[in-house]
Each structure stands twice: as structure tokens, then as C-alpha cells.
Amino acid sequence: MFEALLAKGAALGEARRRRLRAKVAAALRDAAPRGIAVDEVEAGVMLSGRALMLRSIVDPAVRWIAARLA
Fold this sequence. Notes:
alpha+beta, 2 strands
């Protein structure tokens, strides 16, 4: 009985994690400037693009992308 309850709780938690990850990824895709790719990975959401580290320093649109989601 207790094991079934734990399994159901774990499944519900995993489903919520996936929904929230998809929601964050969709918001990032909408906010990301051209040339920035947003991918869902097991650990969360990954941003990638050419010279992303440099662009995060120079381009305010990239620098503040996470702040817009908060």
C-alpha cells in the first residue's frame, strides 16, 4: 500500500517537472533572440548558439533572458 502511494507520488512529481520544463522552454523560445536555440534536456533547459558566452556579455537581449522569466 505504502509503496503504491510512493510510486504514484513520484509519477505525479515527474509529470509536473516535465510540464514546468516545457513551459520554461516555451517561454525561453519566445524570448530568445535570433541564433539562440532552446532545447529541453533531462536536467532542464539548455540554451545554445554561436558565441553564446560572448553574446551574454555584449547583448542585453541575451543577458537578461532569464530575468524576463522571473
